[in-house]
Specification:
Length: 204
């Protein structure tokens, strides 16, 4: 089996719709597949330029999740890692100097079991090459921290198959912390940090 690294974005439970709207802005233009309509917990409906399990039928998550989406994200060709990945895959660069990275498999948990009051968006790389791109590319990291900031997220981290985590956004600030490491012994300590009542929250 190959590597399966992922970026996880943690948001307040009521912020999933805003987070998904931010992800939609990063989608490539001109997709051939019809968009998918998703009903979120609470009844909010959102139309997304992706598929769910490679189908475009409406998805009802009003009673909870998880929600699974097949996404592609536009990433600036701003570092050698993205440039090499694009060259190897024959990817076209758009007029804004970006390439589409996909599929990236997004799983939304509307109620994070280990952190009541929070939800998570987990973006799983489709293959080993993409996993290594996630690990090595600053441009990819900035796409995910940008999504976190734009959606009011409290944490963004790279999950290296539960062996090592790299926290790159925490409570409104870009950080570079490896878990386990000097600041955090495990993910429970990271979660305790974003759950602090006095922790900084970006404005809604």
């Amino acid at each position: 089996m190959g590597l399966g690294y992922s970026y996880e974005i943690v948001v307040p439970a009521g912020g999933v719709g805003k987070a998904l709207a931010e992800v939609a802005v990063s989608a490539p233009a001109g997709r051939r597949e019809p968009p998918v309509e998703v009903t979120l917990p609470g009844g909010e409906k959102i139309v997304l330029p992706f598929t769910s399990r490679f189908r475009s039928e409406p998805v009802d998550c009003s009673a909870g999740g998880p929600l699974e989406l097949d996404t592609s994200l536009m990433v600036p060709v701003d570092d050698d890692e993205v440039c090499a990945y694009a060259d190897a895959g024959g990817l076209d660069v758009d007029p804004l100097g970006r390439v589409a990275i996909g599929y990236v498999y997004l799983t939304v948990e509307f109620a994070r079991s280990s952190s009541p009051g929070f939800a998570s968006l987990d973006f799983m790389a489709a293959a080993t090459g993409m996993s290594l791109l996630f690990e090595r590319s600053a441009s990819v990291r900035e796409v995910f921290t940008g999504l976190t900031a734009g959606s009011g997220g409290v944490c963004c981290l790279l999950d290296k198959e539960c062996v090592e985590y790299r926290v790159c956004w925490l409570n409104g600030e870009a950080v570079r912390e490896t878990v386990p490491g000097p600041r955090f012994a495990d993910m429970a300590e990271v979660a305790a940090e974003w759950r602090r009542p006095d922790a900084h929250r970006p404005p809604p």
